[in-house]
Write a structure and sequence with these properties.
Layout (H helix, E strand, L loop, with lengths): L1 H5 L11 E8 L6 E10 L5 E6 L7 E5 L5 H14 L2 H7 L9 E2 L1 H5 L1 H13 L4 E7 L18 E6 L11
Helix pairs in contact: 3-5
């Protein structure tokens, strides 16, 4: 089963080129109270891995994505599994979005409904905040403009290598 390959619980971990910290803003200013972490790996196949950090409702889900819509799939994962938007859930219909599974959303929902779900996700807002960090050289760098179409509270952090150091242990 694919989910074992992507699990953070002792199974093979993949190289991460982007991640999202999702939560609510705290009253202390710029701080965030995390509810989930999403990691993106570009290895074949590209995968978003969601790990809930809220003890009462722990989730671990992996979504296999397509290169051309990888960023949108990550945000859709937030809309479906963290915001639990009623309209997104209606569009998902009877599709089994099981906890702990590796899923190809295009195979699960079909390209037509996946497009409608991305459109709905662009309209979502609310109390959730997302801190999106993209590492230098990530394939997602070419699709960052799509973030302008979304209403999420979003901070974008990009990285740039200043120097490389090698350490021997």
């Amino acid at each position: 089963m694919l989910s074992r390959r992507f699990s953070s619980r002792g199974y093979l971990m993949r190289s991460v080129t982007a991640h999202m910290l999702v939560g609510t803003r705290s009253e202390e200013g710029g701080a965030i109270k995390p509810s989930a972490l999403l990691y993106f790996s570009e290895e074949e196949p590209p995968v978003w891995h969601l790990h809930s950090v809220v003890a009462k409702e722990e989730k671990e889900i992996s979504w296999i994505t397509r290169n051309e819509r990888a960023l949108e799939d990550g945000l859709l994962l937030v809309g479906l599994h963290l915001l639990r938007d009623p309209e997104l859930l209606r569009l998902a219909g009877e599709a089994e979005i099981a906890k702990g599974e590796s899923v190809d959303p295009e195979a699960l929902f079909g390209a037509h409904f996946l497009g409608k779900m991305h459109e709905r996700c662009q309209q979502l807002s609310g109390e959730l905040s997302i801190v999106f960090t993209i590492h230098e050289g990530s394939m997602l760098a070419g699709s960052l403009r799509i973030l302008e179409d979304y209403s999420f509270n979003l901070e974008l952090c990009t990285s740039r290598t200043l120097h490389q150091t090698s350490v021997r242990i």
